[in-house]
Design goal:
single chain; mainly alpha; 2 domains; 8 helices; globular
């Protein structure tokens, strides 16, 4: 059972079925996009399950390791090319921002699912500025935004 909210914002208990977990895995990219955009994790069973997965310490550690590999591996042992074509000059420009993002992903305490979703989107979006020179996105601002979204608001 999950605690969800209806359209009016009233809480209710939602049942989790096995296919809900399957759908959450299949729709991961879309759910990450929705969560990164500010969708409430309590809005649906899929969003709640995805948010629950994203904030797990193990998932955050794996994501941090992926970011480290993307930002530090200069060459592949297979033919001298990097395993994934990232824009190395852009990565170098925001080295400090990536360091902060990695640190916040590895923090021991709870973090908002929105921040982890933003970090996932940054890494998974093949059309974004991390991978495509033609992307007009501001990579340092996007990395800072993901890192800042990992902070728990005290308001």
């Amino acid at each position: 059972m999950l605690l969800l909210t209806d359209q009016a914002g009233c809480p209710f208990a939602g049942r989790v079925w096995p296919w809900d977990r399957l759908l959450m895995r299949l729709h991961g990219f879309r759910l990450d996009r929705d969560l990164a955009g500010g969708a409430s994790p309590e809005a649906s069973v899929e969003l709640a399950l995805r948010a629950e997965l994203l904030v797990r310490p193990r998932h955050r550690r794996e994501l941090a390791r992926s970011i480290v590999r993307l930002t530090t591996a200069p060459r592949s042992p297979y033919g001298g090319r990097p395993p994934v074509a990232v824009c190395r000059d852009r990565v170098r420009e925001c080295e400090d921002e990536f360091g902060e993002l990695i640190d916040r992903l590895q923090t021991a305490g709870p973090v908002p699912a929105r921040g982890v979703a933003k970090a996932c989107q940054l890494v998974a979006d093949a059309s974004g500025p991390l991978y495509r020179r033609s992307s007009r996105g501001d990579l340092p601002a996007m990395v800072r935004d993901a890192a800042d979204a990992l902070l728990i608001s005290t308001r």
